[in-house]
Specification:
The longest helix is centred in the C-terminal third of the chain and has 20 residues. The strands form 5 sheets. Strands 4-5-12-8-9 form a 5-stranded antiparallel sheet. Helix 2 packs antiparallel against helix 5 and helix 7 runs antiparallel to helix 8. The chain is globular. The chain is of the alpha+beta class and 280 residues long. Strand 6 and strand 7 form a beta hairpin.
Length: 280
């Protein structure tokens, strides 16, 4: 869609170029959502792809994923494959959630080559499956604040509700760091939709670390990601009790599923994920 209110497109080359962000200025990366509907409030776009961030950086603590990393790059990350700053040689089974979360999106592979991880996260859509994977792997967002400072926000606290995040005016999501302990973890994934090619009605992901510490993350079915933490892989009873602790107001309601249906199917999927985490 043509954005006929836009008067200027600024290609950011350094952090100082982001100072123009404001109510009438938006960040442009992949632009797959930005150009999908009218944006009458906008007069300027700031293209952050000019900042040249590598899609991935392997660090001592794990893996940094740039906000400008495309979904295709994200889905292609796997042990033995070359990444932005080297080859991912470590056997990081947690990366299995990358491609699976992308496949849970209602998007073509053409969109994958343009849409970005940061865009999926910052849209804060309940069905944002890439967001769910980053939450499930206990990621932490690095935010470039408008005042020049850096902020770190746990991914489980990043989204507050549909279309609402913890970002402040002028903030820019720089990257997401996934800890090594999560990348080494065993994972499990389940998804359901009302139609074979429909938007996800519920996505449930599990993580079991070497210490036994486990987490089950629910997205698509809820207005924001919900994480259930356990000291060890949960039993059937523990999983059921944990599901009952989820506030009824968190279950999402739209044409892709009623809150009652989403609650029920999420419980079924969570039981399957917990059973897989308990397996030897």
């Amino acid at each position: 869609m043509d954005l006929d209110t836009i008067r200027e497109v600024v290609v950011a080359r350094e952090r100082e170029d982001l100072a123009v962000l404001g109510a009438s200025t938006a960040v442009l990366a992949g632009g797959t959502f930005l150009f999908s509907e009218p944006q009458d409030q906008l007069l300027r776009l700031v293209d952050i792809t000019g900042l040249g961030w590598p899609a991935f950086e392997i660090v001592d603590g794990g893996l940094d994923i740039a906000a400008t990393c495309t979904l295709a790059e994200f889905a292609g990350a796997a042990p033995g494959r070359e990444l932005g700053t080297g080859v991912l040689r470590d056997p990081w089974p947690g990366t299995a959630l990358f491609a699976r979360s992308c496949r849970a999106l209602l998007a073509s592979h053409k969109i994958w080559r343009t849409a970005t991880v940061g865009g999926n996260v910052c849209l804060a859509l309940p069905a944002g499956a890439v967001l769910g994977a980053l939450v499930a792997l206990d990621g932490t967002a690095l935010v470039w604040a408008a005042d020049g400072a850096d902020r770190e926000i746990p991914m489980r606290e990043f989204v507050l509700g549909p279309g609402r995040t913890a970002l402040r005016p002028g903030d820019v999501l720089r990257s997401i760091r996934l800890p090594r302990s999560s990348l080494l973890a065993r994972t499990s994934f389940r998804k359901i939709a009302l139609a074979p090619l429909g938007r996800s009605g519920a996505v449930v992901m599990g993580r079991r670390e070497g210490s036994g510490r486990s987490a089950v993350t629910i997205t698509a079915a809820t207005i924001r990601p919900v994480v259930l933490d356990f000291a060890a892989p949960p039993s059937e009873g523990e999983m059921r009790d944990a599901m009952h602790t989820i506030d009824s107001a968190l279950w999402f309601d739209d044409p892709h599923g009623s809150p009652e249906w989403r609650r029920h199917v999420s419980g079924v999927l969570a039981d399957e994920v917990a059973a897989e985490l308990r397996g030897s």
